[in-house]
Amino acid sequence: MDIITITLSNDYIVIGKNGDGFAFEWTKSDPYEKLEVEAWDQMLYGALENIFRTRCRTSGEIKELIRGRSVYTNKKSIFDEILKREPTLSWLLAQKNDLSLLWLTVLSCLQDSSELLVRYGADGNELCGQHMNWAVTEKSTLLHVLAQMYPSSWKNRLCRLLIERGVDWNARDANGDTVVQTAMKKGCAQLINHYYKTGADVNAVDYRGMTPLLEAAVGSRNPEKLIKVLIRRGADVHARDLHGKNVLHQLALNMREDLNLAWVAGFLIDKGVSMYDRDSKHYHPIHLAICSGKMELVEVFLKHGMNVNERSPLIPEEFLLHFVVKKSESSKIIITLFQYGANIDRRDKWGWTALHVACENTRNPNALIRRKIGLLLYFGADMFLENNDGWDSFDLIQSKLLAQSLMVKTVALRKARLPPTVEFRDERILKERHCNYWKYYQDCINEIARTKSKKITESCTLFDLLTGCHCSTAHLMRVPKVRDEFENYDLSNFPLYANNMREAYDFAKSFYKVEMAPVINAAVRNILSFRSSINVNVVRHYIPCKFCEIKKLVQDCRSP
After folding, report:
1. CA 199 to centroid of chain Cα atoms
2. Hey, where are the domains in the chain?
3. How far is 558 from 379, CA to CA, in rounded Å?
4. Residue 35 pLDDT class (50, 70, 90 cuts)
5. 3-state SS, residue 395
6. How many CB atoms are located within 10 Å of the residue 537 CB?
7. Cα distance between residue 515 and residue 274, in whole Å
8. Is 329 exposed, middle or buried (0-12, 13-18, 19+ CB in 10 A)?
9. Which end of the chain is more exposed for a tag (fewer CB within 10 A), N or C?
10. pLDDT in tens, 400-420
């Protein structure tokens, strides 16, 4: 016996010709645009019209005839009569399966033929009867399948026609989904709007507690339109699934790309959806947005007043910064939190800071955890704060090499930026508590001191490049000679900080190219009012540096 299989992607289902038979396929385009599909439709349509108009059949007889299933279950079915007239259609009709003619025409996208069958009384409530795939099950109705087919005026028209003839649009498939919930996943806004005009339940709940609104947020191709349609039709914006997730939680779990989720989130918040609802694991929507790397949603929540330093005592990572360090697959979210006032040295109930959390996660250090630790140190995290057990970050870090390459070098750089006469508390603690790093620290101090005598230009040394912000040296990138000088400079005499200097140079060059060059070039063309001879100096102080501003904000937001 032939078995029908379905191949699906994130696209639309359709039957296609496969040798002498057929198979389910997926498509990104309208299958009716294929000439052979249109030709098969016209063949079948002509055969059906001929059958219906001959032998003076009554409407009851026609209805009985077209409701029969395949030729292998009913030897006098309509399949026989069609094949007598159009043997070319044997690839579609002479199959060892138990699908009705209406099901075959719909799945094959034979548009005129399927409409003709419905108008003559084909059973629109007939279930598929076969489990073909997770998308088409034995309990699927034609409306469930149409919702997953390519968007077209025919699809909308056929759905309306079926509903007008009494098809149950609230029927559920084997997954417990109504037609509307299935349509949500494909973003069929026009189709969904029509369903609700005819009285469908806009707050129907499936076995997971998911309403159409929640489904639109988590799985739709077009949440922007669908959510507006559903709310206009009376959807409950405060609905939550069986795990306590509201529509913002669901939005944070939407894995489709190129969606305007930030706008949707703002729209929902303005409609009264709470950013502070917790799911069954005690997570706010922002926690799920962090886990899925949706920075745009994190920023929307913070812009709408989410407290970046709010304590969540029911989860292990009480504060958002701790949570990002532990759970996020992106280090950039750390910067976003600092921009909204995250306290870099905030301690949880165990006395752990975000840096403690990061260092404790270095059993198997990877590039991501290195970046997270690097960012925390760059913005001034205190390496010597102790948790409730008296451990600081050096006690928790699992790799001596990592401690040296990130933390000891940072202590030395912080010391180098201070006047020589200032006593440096971090240096004293390092010597007293972590003397095993002291020799490496002294090597760092000596290497930094040697950079002071190595000039890139008359006004800039390697020390300036290493210890200053990239914005302070970016103006030098305007001069090709300076760029050539550094790029050809032999840094082998500075093995500890060579990579740091290269990174500082790359940052300065990028800052110049993106932020400064457009303004300087405009000034040179006399678009700005000041004289070109002083353009560079003026622009040097005119362009704000985001990182300098964030560093200042981080310092201001530390706990007293």
Report:
1. 33
2. 1-175, 452-556
3. 11
4. confident
5. helix
6. 11
7. 38
8. exposed
9. C
10. 899 999 999 999 999 999 998
